[in-house]
Amino acid sequence: MDNVQRLMDVFEGFSDAHGQTRISAERRAGKQSANSYIKRTPLTQELVNGHLTGVLGVGSIPINENNQCKFGALDIDIYPLDHIALDKQLRKLKIPCVVCRSKSGGAHIYFFMTEWMNAGEFRDKASEIASVIGHGGCEIFPKQEEILVERGDVGNFINLPYFDHEMTTRYAFKEDGESATLEEFLDIADQRKVTPSDFNKLQVGSKQTEPFPESPPCLNVMALSGIGEGGRNSSLFNYATMFKKMDPDNWKALLEKFNIEYCSNPLSASEIVTIQSQLEKKEYFYTCNQEPLKSHCNKSLCKRRKYGIGTTTDAVEITGLSIVKSEPRVFFADLDGRRLELTSYDLQSQAKFQIACLEQQNFMPPRVKEDSWQILINSLLSEANEIEVPEELTYKGQFLDLIESFCHGRVQAASAEELLLGKPWVMEDNVYFKIDSFVDFLRQKNFTHYSKGQIQERIKEMNSGDKCNASKHFKTTNGGWKSIRVWWVPDMKEQVDIPNVEIEEEVPF
C-alpha cells in the first residue's frame, strides 16, 4: 500500500466532505494567516497526493455521519512549545499517541483507533489527558459530540500533517527527538493504534486514587502532583473554596490540614488566616480562567461533579463555528461539545442566541457584557470554517433558475407585440422581455432579495458586462415597426440533439 492511501486510512473521517486551507505569508496572533473552507466532496487520493507534494493543503473531518471517530487530536497553540519535552511527558504517562508539529509551530497530538468509537467518549478521555498534561484549554478534535448532518452540518476539519512532505515543517517526533519521515510517521501511527475499549480504560496520570473525587479535576491533578511554591496562595484559595462547599462547618480545619500534607513548602499560619478571612466575608467561586487551574481544566467532567462548577459559569464557551455559504447564511457552533444551528440574528443578539439554546439544548446560558459578546463572535468568525454549497442555494443561483424559468417555462410571445403583455420573446440568440414583467414574476415566486438595481447587475453579468437594455424596433405582424423598451439575456435553453433510434418491429410469439 502506498503512503497516500496509508495516510488516508489513518485519518479516515467524514466520507462526503473535507477541508482545504490556503496559507498566506501574513501572520496573526502568532499563527500563519490562512483561508480555511470545507468542500462537500470526498477526500481523494489525488487531493492527498497534492497535499503531500505541496500543491494544496487538505484536512480531514474526524467525526463521521454516525457521530463516531477513528482518530482525534489535541490542538495546542502555544508558542514557543517544547515538542520533545511534550512527547517525553506523554510517553512517560504511557499514553498512545503521536506528537506532530502544526503549521503554526504548535502541536497536534494525534490518537488513532483500530475501529470507530463514539465521539463523545473520545472527547471525554481526551479532555482528561489534556488536563493532566497541563493543556486543559486546548482544542479537541472532533470538536463536537454530534453533528446535524440532516441540516447540512459536517463538523470541523483538522489539517493533515506532512504538507509538502519532503520539506515539511509539519512532522512527527520520534523517540530520539528527531523528526520522522512520512513513512516513519505512518509506521508509528500504526504501532500506536488502540481499540476504543483500551483508549477508554487508559489510566491517565497518577495511579493514586483522586483525593477529592467529587471536586474539580484540576484540583485533584494539582494535589496529586504536589503544590509547589509558585502560585500557592492562588491554589490554596481555590482549595478553601472547595472545602467550604464540601463541609461548611469544618472547612477551615480541612484547609490547614491540606496546607501541611500537600504543599511542599506550606504557607505560613498568617497567610492561611488571610485566605480564611477572605472567604468568611462572602461566597467566592473557583478561578477557572486563571492559572494554575486553567492549564488543568476539564470543564465537561467538572460540571458533572458535586462540588464542581455545575452550570454556574461566568461566560459562554462557544467553539467550532462553521458557516454554510448559502443565502441566507446558516451557522453551526458548539456549546460544550453539543451542536447548535444558528442564524445571523442568533449570533448578533444574545437574547436570540439564548432562545436557540433553549429550543435545541434545553439550556439557557448566562449573558455576558455586550462588548465581550461582540469580541467573542468576531473571534469565532475570524477562525470559522466555510462550507461551500451548490449555487442554487445562493441568491444568485436562485435568480438564474428563475430567469430561465421565466424565459422558457411559460407561454412565450409569438410576436413582438406580445412583449407588451408580459411575455418573453425569443429571437435569434437572445430572449427579450419587459423588466416590469420579470420583476412581477420574481415577486410571484417570493424572490424579494434583489432590488431593481441588483437585478440589472445580474442581467448585465449574464451579458458579459455588455449593454442589456434599450428601446428596440420590432417588426409587427401587420408589417409595421414598433419601438419597445426591452431587456435581454442570452437564450439559455439547451439544444439537445436526439439521436435517431431504429425501432425493431415487435416479434410476435
Structure described in brief:
The protein has 509 residues and is α+β, with helices and mostly antiparallel strands.
Task: Provide structural commentary.
A hairpin with a 2-residue loop joins strand 13 and strand 14. The C terminus is likely disordered. This protein has 17 helices and 16 strands. It is 34% helix and 19% strand. It folds into 4 domains: 198 residues, DNA primase, PRIM domain; 87 residues, no CATH class; 72 residues, no CATH class; 99 residues, no CATH class. By secondary structure, the protein is α+β, with helices and mostly antiparallel strands. The strands form 3 sheets. The protein has an 8-stranded mixed beta sheet. A 4-stranded antiparallel beta sheet has the order 5-6-4-7, sandwiched between helices. A 4-stranded antiparallel beta sheet has the order 13-14-16-15.
Q: Major beta sheet, specifics? A: 8 strands, mixed
Instruction: Kindly provide the name of the CATH class of the largest domain.
Output: Alpha Beta
Q: Provide the spatial order of strands within the biggest beta sheet.
A: 8-3-1-2-12-9-10-11
CATH architecture of the largest domain: Alpha-Beta Complex
CATH names the topology of the largest domain as DNA primase, PRIM domain
What labels describe this entry?
single chain; four-stranded antiparallel β-sheet; 509 residues; 4 domains; DNA primase, PRIM domain; 17 helices; elongated; eight-stranded mixed β-sheet; disordered C terminus; 34% helix; 19% strand; alpha+beta
